[in-house]
UniProtKB/TrEMBL annotation:
The keyword Membrane applies. It holds the Pfam family ABC2_membrane_2. The chain crosses the membrane at residues 69-88, 100-125, 146-173, 185-209, 221-244, 291-310. One of its GO terms (cellular component) is plasma membrane. This is ABC transporter permease. It comes from the Archaea. It comes from Natrinema altunense (strain JCM 12890 / CGMCC 1.3731 / AJ2). GO terms for molecular function: ABC-type transporter activity. Residues 1-13 have a biased composition (Basic and acidic residues). Keywords: Membrane, Transmembrane, Transmembrane helix. The keyword Transmembrane helix applies. Residues 1-38 are annotated as: Disordered.
Length: 315
């Protein structure tokens, strides 16, 4: 009887073990049911790569919206554009509309680069100091995609704020002046978006190269001072002092994203606005396609440099 009882105990233990094994088979995986790190890291599927880029961009976009950056940027652009449109108004004619656009372009050259750099200088180094970047780099996601996704997420916020903020003033001007000359405002708005994206890319690149947040802020301020204040003054002085070929003048204009933006807007307005820079543009003779291509290079180039530099960054 004792032997039978032992046999029954062994059979029950075996049954319990089988039931335990079955229950373990349906338990969640240690990674939460997602793909393992090795599978994602070695996956060659392009959809997975774009999916990772989309996830990083969406996360950055949500963080920017949650931190009220989107609302703050939109408010800044709306207040300044409405103020400029109100106090620089003139006669209700296409010529008056173009004068307002020229005044807004002068404002954008100073305001948009400063706001874009302030929004992007901590994109990488700020996340590193908060510990978020270390956690993200520990995931099976390429560092380059992290940088590009971060830039894309912030670019969507900045572009949306630029369109909405300056679009409010454009809508009011459309009601007052009508459709005559409104195509110049549309060109100005697209140029402002491109200028903001160029300086956002520069800020992300500086944030990737800097080791500390304060260093990135200092580099961003130096970049703003160089591109907005110093470069054009030096270029105008050199052009006035020396007889330079057209190629050298064109290179000076294309070497500055603010110069490219002025070329696009003043070209659409018939070179109305700043007489000194208008003379430089007339001497350079750059086409709209060349200026647009240069602005694209100013957006893509710094991001490509940041994507390469982040691979060598030590956390």
């Amino acid at each position: 009887m004792t032997a039978d009882r032992r046999r029954d105990d062994r059979d029950g233990a075996s049954a319990d073990a089988e039931s335990t094994g079955d229950s373990n088979a349906v338990d969640p995986k240690p990674d939460g049911g997602y793909e393992t790190a090795a599978a994602m890291a070695h996956s060659g599927d392009s959809g997975t790569r774009f999916g990772q880029l989309f996830v990083v961009a969406e996360t950055e976009y949500r963080l920017s919206v949650r931190s009220r950056w989107a609302l703050a940027l939109t408010a800044i652009f709306a207040v300044f554009s409405l103020g400029m449109a109100t106090f620089s108004g003139s006669d209700t004619s296409p010529a008056g509309f173009e004068r307002i656009v020229a005044s807004l372009a002068a404002l954008v050259v100073y305001l948009v680069p400063l706001v874009a750099l302030a929004f992007s200088y901590d994109a990488i180094v700020g996340r590193e100091e908060s510990g978020w970047l270390q956690a993200l780099f520990s995931l099976p996601v390429s560092r380059s995609r992290v940088v590009l996704g971060t830039a894309i997420g912030r670019a969507i916020v900045l572009a949306s704020a630029t369109v909405i903020g300056f679009g409010v003033a454009g809508f009011l001007l459309l009601l007052e002046y009508g459709v005559g000359g409104f195509e110049a405002y549309v060109g100005f708005l697209l140029g402002a978006v491109g200028l903001g994206l160029a300086f956002l890319a520069i800020g992300v690149c500086l944030s990737t190269l800097a080791r500390e947040k304060t260093h990135a802020l200092g580099l961003a301020l130096l970049a703003w001072a160089w591109f907005v204040l110093v470069h054009d003054l030096l270029a105008l002085g050199v052009i006035a002092a020396f007889s330079l070929p057209d190629l050298a003048v064109s290179a000076m204009v294309l070497a500055n994203p603010t110069g490219v933006f002025r070329g696009l807007v003043l070209g659409a307005l018939g070179a109305g606005g700043d007489a000194g820079f208008a003379a430089v543009l007339a001497e350079a003779g750059l086409s709209t396609g060349t200026l647009v291509g240069a602005l694209v290079v100013w957006i893509v180039g710094p991001l490509a440099l940041a994507a390469v530099a982040v691979r060598r960054r030590r956390l």
